[in-house]
User: Fold this.
Amino acid sequence: MTSGAAGAASGTVTLLVNPAAGGNAGERIAARAARRLLSRGVEVDVVAGRDAAETRERARACVSAGADVLAVAGGDGMVHLALQELARTSTALAVLPSGTGNDFARALGIPSADPDAAADVVLGGVRRRIDLGRCSPPAGGGRPLWFGTVLTSGFDSLVVERTDRMRWPRGRLRYAAAVMAELGRLRPLPFTIEADGHEEHLEGMLVAVGNTAFYGGGMRICPHADPGDGRLAVTAVGPATAGQLLRAFPRIYRGTHATHPLVRTFHANSVRLHTPGMRAYADGEPAGPLPLHAEAVAGAVEVLVPR
Assistant:
């Protein structure tokens, strides 16, 4: 990460709200943050969209108008939406976590259990430029997609798809329940990975490409990821039984799975990933069908982080 100036101790903050995040927690946390910022003399401009498309349109308008700080009240989906407009601009991103995963906020060290402490990062945090991942089909076409946390495919894609279909339980427990359900259909997949021009073929359960370490509500899937080194961290899990994955599952939260014999980790500036009939997800959002090409873009976004 590249250090910069202090946060928005004065001036104007644009507050982008997703009312539906975390069971309407986004709206409550946004209102609480706005009161705290106003009490410290910071002018707050609150904007909200009725759906994802309108919210992104409003984020784009704020950036185009030269907003200094865009504070996002929501979860990883809202952050992902905002990154599409903030990448390679001078507008800084602040995160007021109110989603179920909050993995981007976790990677930045922003407290998710204390809304006042998160608002204080907007007031007095440090501005830093960090890397983002960018993915697109290898043949080009379509707008590239930016991601702040992890691009994943394989078993994880199936889990994310099942998680999105579930309405209960909530948060981390819902993801864990989806994992258990998909374990019953477990099968290895034929992956092709091209990392910095070197191609290899392997059978495995999943491949995760991380700009930061966390996904799935706190799982440290890419423990060696550093959003300030200009590289992506890759974690590949080889063929495994359901029992082996279950036993390794707790280690993912600690990041100690990287030493497991079935796990391989490495870094690359760019990665091309393919397995037939599979989709990828970035920041937990659909990234499209494979093959996809991902690359690290150094210093692509400015963020506010705790001092």
